[in-house]
Amino acid sequence: MNVGIDKIGFFTPNYYVDMVDLARARNEDPNKYLIGIGQTNQAVIPPTQDSVTMAANAALQIIDDDNRSKISLIILGTESGVDNSKSGAIYLQNLLSLNKQARAFEIKQACYGATAGIQMAKDFVNLHPDQQALVVGSDVARYGINTPGEVTQGGGAVAMTIAADPQIMSISKNSSVYSDDIMDFWRPINQTNALVDGHYSNDIYQKFFNITIHDYLKENKLQLDDLKAIVFHLPYTKMGLKGLREILPELSDAKQADLLQEFEASRVYNKQVGNLYTGSLYLSLLSLLDNAIDLKVNDKVGIFSYGSGAQGEFYTGTLKSDFKNNLRKQHVESLLKQRKQLNVSQYEELFLRWPKIDAGDFVLDVTNDNAEVVFSGVSGSKRQYKIQR
Length: 389
Ligand code: CAA
Fold this sequence. Notes:
The chain is an alpha+beta fold. The protein has 13 helices and 18 strands.
């Protein structure tokens, strides 16, 4: 039986900052950000959005009543969760009017959470083919103003339904995993900004990619040439390019050119949004599906997931009949186009307004947020979510 991604939806809030403006403000050559890092714009997350609202807004793109009757597993992959106890998936269940006869929980392992959810959902649907799972990767990526990681911030969510006989992509039965106790990126429980050893995280990412892709190919008797494209976890798009360059020397010139062309398609959206942490890999997959010009049904796509700390996983997907969807593409393009550009001081002002962990009760003005689901503050230590239609 084929099990995999049946629908995919994306959300990012309605503000961004241009990387040329940010480079100038930080006295850097704009080409360092545009080419060296590989980003053109970065999503700026207002206080009225968080990992729950963004997940709900992404899922609302894809959930209909048929899904509501079949979804019995709801998984939120996030490393910017809003509560140390209650999972964001329970809020999601309510905001999306999902079935109450469901398992709902949150998974954390840095940027790997959504992949852990997808693999778990795949096994679940294999056992219960008449049921479906909703898996969402949603995060706010914050390193801090004037830090080396600032150029790799961003935020947003990717929601996927996992089902039997999927319309978009079936997921391979096997995958190759590798994990180790590594301090390359972490966020202590009392902090809203991540701590990172950026160059070290780069080295570990490349190492885990090399180990998992080669192990996967060997164990599944495949060649690199069997992969039409490879999508990567893209905290910034140059990182995936570095990964791809690790394996290019093993290929003919023609195949190298093909994979590089697919890679460009796979980073169109990520360049404009920046880092989504758990959702980044799946935004890149969406970008490939929407922007590649020569993909065909049954093409095999390599998928590399990485979460600092660190966990790597490589698996493959096989494209199914409805992997292209013009309406979905138009929606993403208009979401990105209608965003408001902020100058650097406006971005800094919004960044600093992010609620402190010990802020207590407060009310947020949601009138400038055009998303369907917004966060309107904290009352009696309880988070307040609103649906505006
Ligand atoms: N024109 C073109 N390229 C230029 C340039 C110019 N004028 N100036 C510099 N560059 C290039 C450099 O050559 C370099 O390229 P390579 O990486 O290919 O060598 C690139 O721009 C970046 O330059 P630096 O290495 O000098 O930049 P930096 O020291 O400021 O650090 C960074 C860059 C390490 C990515 C930093 O931004 C950072 O720490 N980011 C956060 C870390 C991160 O995102 N890690 C990802 C894995 S962790 C993760 O994904 C999180 C998770 O699991 C939750």
